[in-house]
Amino acid sequence: MDSDLHNWILKFADDTKIFSGVKHESDYAMLQQDLNTLQNLATKWEMPFNASKCKVMHIGKQLGTGPCEYVINGQKLKVVTVGATAALGRRGLGR
To answer: pTM for this one?
Structure first.
């Protein structure tokens, strides 16, 4: 699965985190493409993502006119504004 993705991914049990540096519009498009790939694989394996539990967290400067919007299963993902560790879970980014 990971070989089909362009960005970093962390998996633990039923938890998946995908992350990337987004500096250009092409980076945003690549991350959305990876989300689409994950969605397609999850559907194929009959383990779809619950889009209402999926969140987006922006860290640092935002692109152009505002933050990029990401979609899973046709549903726009909610943007969270809490601290990095809390939003990513107790393990943070793999600690």
So the answer is: 0.76
